[in-house]
Design goal:
With 422 residues, the protein is of the alpha/beta class. It has a single domain, classed as Alpha-Beta Barrel (TIM Barrel), CATH 3.20.20. The chain is 51% helix and 9% strand. The strands form 4 sheets. Strands 5-6-7-10-11 form a 5-stranded parallel sheet. The chain has a 3-stranded parallel sheet with strand order 2-3-4. Helix 13 links the parallel strand 6 and strand 7. D-fructuronic acid (FIX) binds next to loops.
């Protein structure tokens, strides 16, 4: 047996490299993405044109370009990508996080960025078949597996599930139920069309059918959790269909299947509809609904992330009060280095390692490479500072302890919360 590697105040220099290496080499479970197993065909977006037309970049493009929205959307995707490349990368320095992300991904995937040739980059991506591409990205990002966002109402997705989906160990499913919870009146007919005996008035017979719908889909997908995104004005005491469905249908089904209910809170959809997917914004939410749910349903498990920076501290305090609450990720507009660092530091200070510091939210396969490269760098830095503080007290740290902590942060906490083995 080799001697354990122990770090003390005197050997702190070695600690920095050890942390960096462990964080880089620990495979991650990416707990929320918009990536899909190859069997879902066109739903798995990949390659340079998809990266360049990511909605984060579309929003930034319109900061500079005077193209009309209509003109832009009428262009084919390659023309949109060409325009974004020229505007955001050539006419301006690509220093925003979303732009830098494209460059990090290209760099780590082996492209030379000293004199980049977009046409050549396109040709090289086009050569990759989907399986090769998934392997290339999962290896470069060191992803063990990724959690999809699965919509039972999606016309492309639904037939794949119904045809009898063959599980793919690299991709796990999540039952996403935004249409059900955020617009029951508008979507009730979709359950009816699928053979569930529901109607707009949520009577107890109707609730039984909504539960049957959820339960059927949780089982069909082997969903790891159910999830919804919610607006900043989300409350539980407004007598809404949403509140009723959460308490009467979602939580009982989640409990019966022993899966968490994930809430992504704070998104205001469509503040600028002309921007399409890029037109969503955010607002600060009340923590009261979360406290109510965690306290009232101690047998349910909640995974939660907020979109507003202003909610992060209170959310961490709430997680101190309820062990059935697991905070995850720096979502969307928070997925920027300065904010990831602030949030990760603050969460660790309040909650130790009992958090999921990050998810990628990748919509395009290749984005996973940059999202994880950037986040790993920040997680390493925060841990380095935290361990250095411990060394100052005279406490010693072993490499095994660092490995244990990092494994928890990059997937272990998620799987233990689920009470599932990876
Ligand atoms: O609701 C969500 O899951 C969001 O993450 C997306 O809708 C959003 O468009 C996104 O990609 C953010 O990163
Ligand atoms: Zn998402």
């Amino acid at each position: 047996m080799s001697e354990p590697v122990v770090y003390t105040r005197e050997t702190a220099v070695g600690l920095r490299n050890a942390i960096k290496q462990i964080v880089e080499r620990t495979p991650v479970t990416d707990i929320h993405t918009h990536l899909y197993a190859p069997v879902f065909g066109p739903l798995l977006l990949r390659g340079i044109d998809e990266m360049l037309t990511y909605h984060y970049l579309v929003a930034e493009y319109f900061r500079y370009a005077d193209t009309s929205y209509e003109t832009f959307w009428a262009w084919p995707k390659t023309q949109q990508a060409d325009a974004i490349w020229k505007t955001l990368f050539l006419d301006n320095s690509p220093i925003s996080e979303a732009c830098r992300g494209v460059l990090t991904a290209l760099n780590l995937l082996g492209f030379d960025l000293a004199s980049p040739d977009l046409a050549q980059i396109r040709r090289e991506f086009a050569r990759l078949d989907v399986e090769e591409h998934v392997k290339l990205v999962f290896d470069a990002a060191n992803i063990k597996s990724a959690v999809m966002t699965n919509d039972p109402f999606d016309d492309v997705e639904c037939p794949v599930w119904k045809a009898g989906y063959t599980p793919d160990s690299r991709f796990h499913a999540v039952l996403r139920i935004d249409p059900l919870l955020n617009d029951w009146e508008g979507n009730c007919h979709r359950l009816q069309d699928a053979g569930y005996n529901v109607y707009q008035r949520l009577t107890s017979r109707c609730i039984v059918e909504v539960r049957r719908f959820l339960d059927d889909w949780v089982k069909r997908m082997n969903a790891l959790y159910m999830a919804v995104s919610l607006p900043p004005d989300f409350v539980m005491d407004d007598g809404s269909a949403r509140a009723c469905l959460i308490e009467e249908a979602v939580l009982p089904v989640a409990q019966a299947n022993n899966i968490p209910f994930a809430m992504m809170i704070g998104v205001t959809r469509n503040v600028n509809p002309a921007l399409k997917l890029a037109g969503d914004s955010l607002g600060t939410a009340s923590l009261a609904p979360l406290e109510y749910l965690c306290a009232t349903y101690p047998k349910n498990k909640f995974m939660v992330t907020y979109l507003a920076r202003e909610n992060q501290h209170a959310a961490a305090v709430t997680a101190r009060k309820f062990r059935n609450l697991l905070l995850f990720g720096c979502w969307w507009f928070l997925n920027n280095p300065s904010l990831i660092e602030e949030m990760t530091r603050m969460r660790i200070e309040l909650l130790g390692t009992s958090i999921i510091p990050q998810h990628s939210d990748a919509r395009v396969l290749d984005q996973a490479v940059y999202k994880w490269a950037h986040s790993r760098e920040i997680i390493s830095r925060v841990l380095r500072h935290k361990y250095a503080d411990l060394l100052e007290t005279g406490w010693t740290i072993t490499e095994d302890a660092i490995r244990r902590d990092v494994e928890k942060l990059l997937g272990g906490n998620f799987w233990s919360f689920l009470q599932r083995e990876l």
